[in-house]
Amino acid sequence: MAIHFHEASLAPLHQLTATAPDGAIIALIGEDGSGQRQILQLASGTVLPDSGEVLTTNAGRYLAPAEALNLGPVPVLALDHSLATCDALVRTRAALGLERLRRQGTIIFFASHELDLVAALADEVWWIHEGRLQARGDHREILPKYQHHLAARHRAWGETIPGHLLPSLRRGDGRAEILALETFGQNGQASIVIQSGEVATFCVTVKFNAAVDQPVVGIMIRTRIGFEVYGTNTELEKLALGPVVAGQTIRVAFQFPCLLSPQEYTLTAASHDPDGVWHDWMEDALAFSVADSRYTAGVANLRAQVTAETL
């Protein structure tokens, strides 16, 4: 028999109304504390709702995250991140076991943060957000919406975290000192997370301790394994900064569309003479990340437009 949730509430879950049919594998996605665990407990009959009702004649089995993976016959199976610590062999066996149960009519709920696993196993996805059913449907429809939500949350979180300068190497003759490195999103807010495709600004603030005729300020972006992605400086960009005098401070802003793939990067910055003599060089001084709502291979996010024609 199908499971019918009718305005079922169990904090933080709030007034869930939905139906889970027999022989279905339903994935529950969402941020921790949104109510996925409460759905699993209600579906399995482990607990009763604070209000509303859960209509079913089935007895269920709830498996907590640390419990052994029991895939024996049962009308309702509720897996609370049960596959998270399993190795590849156990997961393959589990997928076959879940399919066998599904064919026998078992209603299977599983909560997971692994979206590839959700796409591979689920007949239907329920996205739970702040205690409510945000969306439900096929993974090809729901997962992109959820990933867009996660990217936006990641981007917003980046504005709350100060960027700390932790250079792996610092060198120079001391004629100038880099005081700050900052990254800004398109909205003008400082952030250590940049949305792929948005116009980003990278600022270098330099204080000169001595007079310099022709200072050059530059940046280099690298992947976390040291691959050089993009670098430029004021000399290459035809921006003259000098001459400067002792005590003068200059803030240089490099602005460009951040067409990078989502991953972690580091920012190196330097002040030097045109012949390459360093005043101050901060290697991999600032870590930042690029977020996106979809996976993109490589480093450059070229945002291809794809067409096809029958020949």
Key structural traits:
single chain; 311 residues; alpha/beta; Rossmann fold; Coagulation Factor XIII, Chain A, domain 1; 2 domains; 6-stranded mixed sheet; 4 helices
The count of strands amounts to 18
Strand content: 35-45%
Low-confidence stretches: none
Number of helices: 4
Could you give the distance between the termini? 50 Å
Sheet with most strands? 6 strands, mixed
Provide the succession of SSEs: EEEHEEEHEHEEHEEEEEEEEE
Characterize the quaternary organization of these chains.
Answer: single chain
What would you say the CATH architecture of the largest domain is? 3-Layer(aba) Sandwich
Shape estimate? elongated
- Rg from C-alpha positions? 27 Å
Mean pLDDT: 95
Please identify the structural class as seen in this structure.
alpha/beta
- Across the major sheet, the strand order is 5-6-7-3-8-9
**Residue share in helices?**
10-25%
Number of domains: 2
CATH homolog superfamily of the largest domain? P-loop containing nucleotide triphosphate hydrolases
CATH class of the largest domain: Alpha Beta
CATH topology of the largest domain: Rossmann fold
Note down, in words, how this protein is organized.
This protein has 311 residues and is α/β, with parallel strands linked by helices. It has 2 domains: 3-155, 3-Layer(aba) Sandwich (Rossmann fold), CATH 3.40.50; 169-291, abc- transporter (atp binding component) like domain (Coagulation Factor XIII, Chain A, domain 1), CATH 2.70.50.60. It has 4 helices and 18 strands. It has helices at 36-44, 88-103, 115-121, 139-158, and strands at residues 3-10, 13-20, 25-29, 51-55, 60-63, 76-80, 107-111, 124-129, 132-137, 169-171, 176-184, 193-195, 199-208, 216-223, 228-233, 249-257, 264-272, 278-291. Strands 5-6-7-3-8-9 form a 6-stranded mixed sheet, with helices on both faces. Strands 10, 12, 14, 15, 17 and 18 form a 6-stranded mixed sheet that branches. The chain has a 3-stranded antiparallel sheet with strand order 2-1-4. It is elongated. It starts with a strand and ends in a 20-residue tail after the last strand. The mean pLDDT is 95.
